[in-house]
Design goal:
single chain; mainly alpha; Four Helix Bundle (Hemerythrin (Met), subunit A); 8 helices; about 80% helix; about 0% strand; globular
């Protein structure tokens, strides 16, 4: 009887130890994958602690036949969906749910295309950089067009200002990359993921409280403009420092 109980206890303890070991191993793998997909860039965004483990997990389970370019196309399709949702919602705001779902699709494709290439050690730095920026610009323009059709005629200029503000953000990122050779897609705690979440929250609020999206758009344009001016100051400082280094190097 005692021997039977001891066997049960021993078996239970062994299962417990194995489970703890497997959990620890899984955590190590996830941590290792997180480091692997971010070795070419530094992230500072607010939700990076939640986002990066998810991206690492998705990279690990992604079928091998899914290529980075395919994910780029998925992200572009998501942008088309966002624009379509805006266009359809001009008569019925409930269609903004299409845009919210499409933003999730866009996040999936846009966040994973470069990360899966890095994870598989198949990154093409300049090809990926060129394609990513080009698709980002097309996506921004598409969403701006959809937003244009959604707004009343009196406020359509906001869509143009929105696109220009985000384009300035992209331009500053390119200039900083040229000056530092480090590509950073975040402005402090605010990155593309936070931007998408903020817009989706505003779209949901617009469905419940029509007219609130206009206020949000004004606030976003103002905040993005302020961030851009701050980033411009940093970029000019970096440019001045690089000029000084090049002058000193030329003297020697």
């Amino acid at each position: 009887m005692h021997a039977g109980r001891l066997n049960v206890i021993y078996t239970f303890a062994s299962l417990k130890i194995n489970r703890v070991s497997e959990t620890s191993s899984l955590k190590r793998n996830i941590s290792s994958d997180e480091a692997a997909i971010q070795r070419d860039r530094k992230r500072t965004n607010l939700f990076r602690g939640l986002e990066q483990p998810v991206l690492a997990f998705l990279c690990r389970i992604m079928p091998s036949w899914v290529s980075p370019d395919m994910l780029t196309v998925v992200g572009l399709i998501g942008s088309l969906g966002v624009s379509l949702g805006f266009y359809m919602a001009k008569d019925d705001h409930r269609y903004l749910f299409i845009s919210i779902i499409a933003f999730a699709v866009q996040w999936f494709g846009d966040s994973l295309d470069g990360r899966i290439a890095v994870y598989r050690n198949a990154a093409r730095k300049w090809y990926g950089f060129s394609l990513d920026l080009s698709v980002d610009w097309v996506s921004t323009a598409l969403m701006g067009v959809g937003f244009y059709f959604f707004l009343d005629d009196r406020y359509k200029i906001l869509s143009f200002v929105f696109v220009c503000s985000y384009a300035w953000t992209m331009l500053l990122a390119i200039i900083k990359f040229k000056l530092t050779d480090e590509y950073n897609i975040d402005s402090g705690l605010f990155g593309p993921t936070e931007f998408r979440l903020a817009i989706c929250s505003a779209l949901f609020t617009e469905i419940v409280f029509p007219g609130s999206l206009l206020v949000f758009a004004l606030v976003v344009v103002g905040v993005v403009s302020i961030i851009n001016f701050v980033e411009l100051g940093k970029v000019l400082k970096l440019g001045n420092e690089r000029d000084a280094k090049e002058r000193n190097a030329a003297k020697h």
